[in-house]
Design brief:
The chain is built from 14 helices and twelve strands. The chain has a six-stranded mixed β-sheet. A six-stranded mixed β-sheet has the order 8-9-7-10-11-12, sandwiched between helices. A hairpin with a 5-residue loop joins strand 3 and strand 4. Helix content is about 45%, strand content about 15%.
């Protein structure tokens, strides 16, 4: 039996124990299974209280059930929902009964959403938006994912594809009437006008996206510097909890410690690295090597010193801010030397902060600067429709094909028509409607089970 012909089930709510758990079924036998468990078939889309019973008529649980016949369901197939008490024993008993039905099995990750995609309930950009919404950690990530889930990019892509087909039809009609000298020119001009307008709109979307795809991953900030200058104390201050061991002995931090923060809606990963120094300890040497490698990959480096130990920051491709710690022991006060005149200045290496990581002096100013840097680096994302590298690259391919079509029109309508077919094909890949089998498994297996 083909997997699409099987009925699948999964827990579609949070982990037990909970007050209520939702178990969802989809597939051709969803109605049959529901009727067998509930003893009757409830009215479509009406919550119905029943006693669920196993095949031996032993009660499983008091439940509320709902029935969504195809095609008016989230997957486009028959769907049943069982709202049961969220105890582990209840769910274990229910899953055992469901698994006992022929051609009924537990769902794989993302299988519900993949069936919705394959049944035309959503396109690939909406499926990616749903995945991003599930994994959103901050409010800005949530808002960006919600725009994807609403199909804003997909709606535009479908409209763009229709316009490309219209322009292609004009050019190919000109090819059909190539023996009449004036007809091809009359058809080519409006086709090129359509292409030019469409290209301007796609370029605008590409320009507006800025670094919105980076918002999914977030900003990476590495805290680096010599040993025993307060790096671990600083990451504890930023996290508002103890995530790193603080010790007066140099070399305590041997491995990389990461903590995910939500700073004004921006996802920020802060990394505490091993103190960078020359050492003969092989374990500490490995820690220093990893610290240097991680700092080289970061988007921003906070290079820490204390008043008694000034060191030269490591060479990095990312901006390096100097953070002087232990200002409570003397030296410039909190925030000394920092530049806030222009947001763009935050990308420079000429920024310094004075803090006391142990007392918290200057921490708010440092956090405010990191938030401003994140806003400048990631963008607000409010006007951006592109959330993934895959989407951006395909739109760039579309734009390139349209440009080449306009440039090649004077050399022959056949070349222009072929470029338009390539642009249409790229938009089809964006929506997941042509030649995407190689990426579907990659996308949907990232979903949680039950989605």
């Amino acid at each position: 039996m083909h997997p699409r012909e099987e009925t699948i089930f999964a827990l579609s709510s949070g982990r037990p124990p909970s007050a209520i758990s939702i178990v969802r079924l989809t597939g051709p036998l969803a109605g049959t299974v529901l009727a067998r468990l509930a003893g009757k078939m409830p009215a479509p889309r009406m919550a119905t209280h029943v006693t669920l019973r196993d095949p031996h008529q032993q009660p499983i649980d008091e439940a509320v059930v709902l029935w969504f016949p195809a095609p008016g369901s989230v997957t486009g197939e028959d769907v049943a929902e069982l709202h049961v008490h969220g105890g582990r024993a209840v769910l274990a008993a229910l899953f055992a009964v469901l698994s006992g039905f022929d051609c009924v099995r537990a769902a794989e990750p993302g299988e519900f959403t993949r069936r919705a995609f394959e049944n035309g309930k959503l396109d690939l950009t909406e499926a990616e938006g749903l995945d991003d919404l599930i994994h959103a950690d901050t409010d800005r990530q949530r808002r960006q994912a919600l725009r994807q889930l609403k199909g804003l990019l997909g709606d535009k892509a479908r409209r763009w594809r229709e316009q490309i087909i219209e322009a292609s039809a004009l050019i190919e009609a000109g090819l059909d009437f190539s023996d009449e000298a004036d007809v091809p020119a009359e058809l080519l001009a409006p086709a090129l006008a359509k292409i030019e307008t469409l290209l301007a709109e796609i370029d605008e979307v590409l320009a507006a996206q800025a670094r919105s795809e980076r918002l999914r991953e977030g900003l990476v900030v590495a805290i680096a510097g010599p040993p025993n200058v307060g790096k671990s104390t600083l990451i504890n201050q930023l996290a508002r909890r103890e995530v790193a061991i603080v010790s007066p002995y140099a070399g305590t931090t041997r491995d990389i410690i990461e903590v995910q923060l939500d700073l004004d809606g921006y996802p920020v990963t802060v990394i505490d690295t091993a103190g960078i120094r020359e050492t003969k300890d092989p374990v500490e040497q490995e820690g220093v090597r990893r610290a240097r490698a991680r700092a080289a990959e970061a988007d921003l480096v906070l290079w820490m010193n204390d008043p008694q130990q000034e060191s030269i920051p490591e060479q990095c491709s990312a901006p390096v801010w100097r953070v002087r710690n232990k200002v409570d022991l003397g030296g410039p006060g909190p925030g000394a030397g920092q530049s806030k005149e222009h947001v763009g200045a935050l990308r420079s290496d000429n920024i310094a902060f004075g803090i006391s990581a142990s007392r918290g002096d200057g921490i708010d100013e440092l956090i405010g600067a990191i938030v401003a840097f994140a806003k400048d680096y990631l963008g607000t994302g409010e006007g951006a429709l592109i959330g993934r590298e895959r989407q951006r690259k395909l739109l760039e391919q579309v734009a390139a094909s349209l440009r080449h079509s306009m440039a090649s029109a004077s050399d022959g309508e056949e070349l222009a028509a072929e470029d338009l077919r390539a642009a249409s094909y790229s938009l089809g890949r964006l929506l997941g409607r042509v030649d995407v089998d190689d990426i579907l498994d990659v996308i949907f297996r990232q979903f949680c089970i039950g989605k």
